[in-house]
Amino acid sequence: MEKKKLITDDGIRYDGRKLDELRPIKFQIGTLKNADGSAYVEWGRTKILVGVFGPRESHPKHLALADRCYIRARYHMAPFSVEERKSPAPSRREIELSKVMREALEPAIFAEFFPRTTIDIFAEVLQADGSTRCAAISAASLALTDAGVPMRDLVSSMAVAKVEGKLVLDVIDQEDKQGDSDMPMAIMPSKNVITLIQMDGLLTHEEFIQSVELAKKGCMEVYAKQKEALEEHFKKTMDREEV
Amino acid sequence: MTNQIIPSVKRKQIIELAESGKRTDGRSLTDMRPVEIQTNVIEKAEGSATVRLGDTYVIAGVKFAIGDPFPDIPNDGVMSVSAEFVPLASSEFETGPPDENAIELARVVDRGLRESKLLDTSKLCIIPGKKVWIAWVDIFILDHRGNLMDAAALAGLSALLTSKMPKAEVSGEEVKVTEEFVPVPLRAIPVNVTMAKIGDKLFVDPSLEEEEVMDCRLSVAFAEDDQKQEKICAMQKGGSGTLTPEELLRAVEIAKVKSQELRKHLPSGGK
Amino acid sequence: MVVPGTLLAEGRYNAGVNVYKEDDKFFSSVVGLAELRNETVTVIPLRGCYIPFVDDVVIGKVVEVISTAWMLDIRSPWQGVLFAKEFLSKPLNTMKEDARSYLDIGGMVKAKVMAFDRTRNPSLTTREPELGKIQRGTVIEADPTRVPRIIGKKGSMINLLKKESGCQIFVGQNGRVWIAGKSRDEEAVVAEAIRKIEAEAHTTGLTDRIQEYLVKHRV
């Protein structure tokens, strides 16, 4: 495969963005009727639907925890979400991502309020074009909010990659394939704590420190979009002045 | 392991001891447990190693097989890492397909080995676009006494470092494996260091007891090339706690120092 | 409007419902409307499931019959348990009688929460006047967070609904509403009015609009 140059000398990327510029991100709340909470996100061409059920009685019963809620998460990609059809059976990647997605959200949830119950978080990737785990985590935190699950904070996520020697925010497929490193991060924005960090590729110590800063900036931009979407959705039910 | 109820008394004891920099097994917060690596323990494997990290016991074997390349990288060989939590290693492990913990472990170890560019996969090509060598790295957990991540990464690495590779001869479209062996083409060497966060302290190389009460863990792999250049090549947070940005940066500093220490235990390359 | 993690106040306050405290700071744990009353910070939730409280009257749906009790879906994370003696006011002789002959799967029951502490399922009773199996009318489901609006200040909204429609109406704390009128049409109008209240719960002039609606659609 021919390697195309992805970043111009002026720092403009393959799709016209600046190095630290995000793609258009649009969250929608309450898109599903059956789920207790739901959210849909279009993150560039990445499209993900998240549904939350619960807290509800644990089935099977042996999953129930005496002191808190059992949280189950599934990250799953539709067969048609990628160039070459993906088998619908969960891959090893999806199993790992399900785990890290759960662990990125768990710190935010007041699980101790709901002993012996289960919360299910289902994320279906309908189209994948980079940053799917960040998009899924960010949308899931909105679906949990929509379900009224008590939480300490929202969870906002963003990845930093190193492409052609430069650190960039929010990579698309092409950049991901040719990139030297990828570092997804998730934070609880009003607590300034990290709930997800993964990295692969090669980064110097200094580059790593810069990446953390840049990822944080990206997460805060996602956070603003999340709050915007919540306001837009819920203001429909009220016109009372805000307190 | 989600079903375990955190023993709160133990957690309190561990946190209070850590205030004076101590741990229940006598180590300081940054001490690793003793490391013991044995290589070439399985004659039938092209490479193998056992690692004892304290009482944690792991074995890894490397087998080479001829297979098809990935369509997007037709001229590169393939490395595949998997991990098995065998039931004899813990009462918590069950038979059956690998669960999310085993899969996560394998994938984190795999990323460390892969992203460091340890194995020069371009030299694993036999017929471009058609036949390549596949290096299968299989890691078995034999006794789970904490920090499987580092023990497994060390085992996989040690097995690859001391591995030999069969030699293939090509005549036209025919591939024949000879009786000869050649060294495995290796480059930068990754070493993984895992820390558990308990309260506001970081515990290097957590024991099983510490893992049971931890908030979360962070694994950081540093790769060092033949120019002694060090870079971070993989990282993974696990568990449902959080890290502050300061804790994250501190953990990376610690990992940098500890990875150098661990390098001294590595077997010299079997080239 | 506040969202989970919104800082609500700092200093000497009390944390009310849907508010949590960290050091001196008070944060919202849900999406909702923040209120400060008598030094207490609370958030009125816009979304959420029903959390049982002792003495709440709820409408439950039978989902399981076990030998001497019924398990009721009360739209909370935990199913309610209605023991035979709390429903029949006498023990059930399991050798001679089948619990299902009294109350079968799918049956609706108006019941009161007797005890609940999150470590065990909420236990229910019908041993009080007005409680028991629902025999007629319609049961609709509204968002549990909207119950205070459907009832209204000092019952203003529910009284309006009853007066204008002529129906009997009972609003369970878990958001199930029982409506019994002279005809199905009457019940349908009330159901629709409740949908409207749900959708426009926090808007001004709601009571007037509902009155208009009921008058216009009087059967």
Please give a structural write-up.
The complex is a heterotrimer of chains A (243), B (271) and C (219). Chain A is 27% helix and 30% strand. Chain A has one domain: Ribosomal Protein S5, domain 2. By secondary structure, chain A is of the alpha+beta class. Chain A is built from 4 helices and 9 strands. Chain B has 271 residues and is α+β, with helices and mostly antiparallel strands. Chain B has one domain: 2-Layer Sandwich (Ribosomal Protein S5, domain 2). Chain B has 5 helices and 12 strands. Chain B has helices at residues 8-19, 100-115, 148-161, 208-213, 245-263, and strands at 35-39, 47-53, 56-67, 78-85, 125-127, 131-143, 164-171, 174-183, 189-198, 201-204, 216-224, 230-238. The longest helix of chain B has 19 residues, at 245-263. The termini of chain B are far apart. With 219 residues, chain C is α+β, with helices and mostly antiparallel strands. Chain C has 3 domains: 7-45, OB fold (Dihydrolipoamide Acetyltransferase, E2P) (Beta Barrel), CATH 2.40.50; 57-133, Nucleic acid-binding proteins (OB fold (Dihydrolipoamide Acetyltransferase, E2P)), CATH 2.40.50.140; 138-216, K Homology domain, type 1 (Ribosomal Protein S8, Chain: A, domain 1, 2-Layer Sandwich). Chain C is 23% helix and 32% strand. Chain C contains 6 helices and 15 strands. Chain C has helices at residues 84-88, 99-102, 147-151, 156-165, 184-199, 206-216, and strands at 7-10, 14-15, 19-22, 25-28, 32-37, 40-45, 57-66, 69-73, 80-83, 108-115, 123-125, 132-133, 138-141, 168-171, 176-180. In chain C, the strands form 4 sheets. Chain C has a 5-stranded mixed beta barrel. Chain C has a 3-stranded antiparallel sheet with strand order 1-4-3, with no helix packed on it. In chain C, strands 2-6-5 form a 3-stranded mixed sheet, with no helix packed on it. The relative contact order of chain C is 0.12. Chains in contact: A-B, A-C. At the A-C interface, strand 3 and helix 4 of A face strand 5 of C.
